[in-house]
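Many introductory courses stop at the sequence. We go one step further.
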Amino acid sequence: MSYNVNISVEAPIENQIQEITYDGIEIYQPLLTLSESLAKYAQKIDFSKTSGADIKKEEANEDSKSDTDSKDAFQSSLWPWDSVRNKLRNALQEVCVLADVLAIAKKNDI
């Protein structure tokens, strides 16, 4: 026997409960700020999955982009945070290079 059951899946309107005191007062967690939510999503990005081949493919795609502008207009991004991931990956590489340069400069000064 199968029954049709309507299930409503909605985001909770209330914040999550952080603590319930001994007198029954509920203390709620505040909502995340934009920077905190961006940091939360950025932590989910696995930078090791991308390689230099992806960067070369992107550069090749930019060269041939003028030919396929009409085709690209209909294709959406595979992942909505793709541009954020790429910018964060580039920033990570720049920070690593800066750290290496500073480490070399510090060794040479001593």
